[in-house]
Amino acid sequence: MIGENIQRLRKSKGLTLSDCAERANISKSYLSNIERNLNQNPSIQIIEKLAVVLDVDLRTLLGTAESVKEQVPESEWLEFVNELKKSGVEKEQLQEFRAVIEFIRWQKGKCGGSDK
């Protein structure tokens, strides 16, 4: 169950297995084993790292499928992604958009604004 939750959240955030593992500072094969439920009992430290990378709380990773579904982007986000595809944005270019979004988050945090 934990592995399925992690995989679902990772994909909903647009992260590859490699990206997620690198950001959590764990090996790609270890993350793959967790997602495929070959390792069904990862340490709490690993779960905490993944929660930070996936921007969710621990309960979401450890919880039921319903709590994970709540974290999946709403239809507006899916429409936005479809619009990006239609406008010719390639998957490889998404990293550039992430950099812009991270800058905006940083700027809002620096100015005391909310990032929601």
Automatic annotation (TrEMBL):
Sorted UniProt keywords: DNA-binding
Protein name, entry field: Transcriptional regulator
Cellular component GO terms held in the UniProt record: cytosol
Organism expressing this protein natively: Oceanobacillus zhaokaii
Molecular function in Gene Ontology: DNA binding; DNA-binding transcription factor activity
Any matching Pfam family: HTH_3
Record-linked InterPro entries: Cro/C1-type_HTH, Lambda_DNA-bd_dom_sf, TransReg_Diox_bact_type
UniProt keyword Zinc-finger present: no
Segments forming domain HTH cro/C1-type: 6-61
